[in-house]
Amino acid sequence: MKIGVLASGSGSNLQTLIDQLHYDESCEIEISVVISDRKKAYALTRAKKAGIPSYVVKARDFPDRHAFDERISELLDTHAVELIVLAGFMKLLQPAFVQKYRNRILNIHPALLPAFPGAHPVADTLAYGAKVSGVTVHFVDEGMDTGPIIAQKSVPVFDNDDEDSLHARLQVEEHKLYLTVIKWYAENRISFAGRKVIVKGSE
Ligand code: GAR
Question: Count of domains in the chain?
């Protein structure tokens, strides 16, 4: 199965996928392309080091968001991507893109959705005073972090946490959970009962 990873930042989730999928020759999941909307994203360096084709697609180089999404779509299709993996990609994909790839786009979010959606979930969790946070992997729909949830893992919030310490604890779980879910997808174990996601053999 070919996956395409979209990332805007440091790419630590991408790195786990590179380490666990790309460098495992027996693995049937291939990272065929990495795309970033930020030229300086370290995720691009990680892709280059691994010899994975990578591209910068900046929103401001396009007349509108539709054209931006179209370029991303063109690159994903050129690389025969079957599953799109958002790994810290901070742009909201437009409805036409989501409809084209319905149930073929995954996102990871550093909070227990539907709590704390949006761009600052870790800061929002701390500001709210929540005692438990966690990570969520979900399918992407037209909303902001609203798609069907596939898997979640809780993480404690400590009184002395700041954004960095909590995010670091969350990322340890992100790296494990994303890999697990991508493998479930590749093994065809994910199905739907209405909006509820069922994972065969995970009970
Ligand atoms: C991750 O924590 C991911 O969950 C978050 O961005 C970080 C990217 O880290 N995504 C969101 O907040 C999406 N709403 P990484 O670049 O090191 O993988």
Answer: 2
109 tagged catalytic: yes
Q: What is the CATH number of the domain that holds 177?
A: 3.40.50.170
Its domain, for residue 179, covers 108-203
**Do 84 and 18 belong to one domain?**
yes
Distance in Å, CA 92 to ligand 1 centroid: 13
Instruction: Specify the pTM.
Output: 0.97
For ligand 1, whether the C-beta of 10 sits within 6 Å is yes
Q: What is the pLDDT of residues 101-150, one digit of tens each?
A: 999 999 999 999 999 999 999 999 999 999 999 999 999 999 999 999 99
DSSP 70-109: HHHHHHHHHTT-SEEEESS--SPPPHHHHHHTTT-EEEEE
Q: Which atom of ligand 1 is nearest to the CA of 121?
A: 12
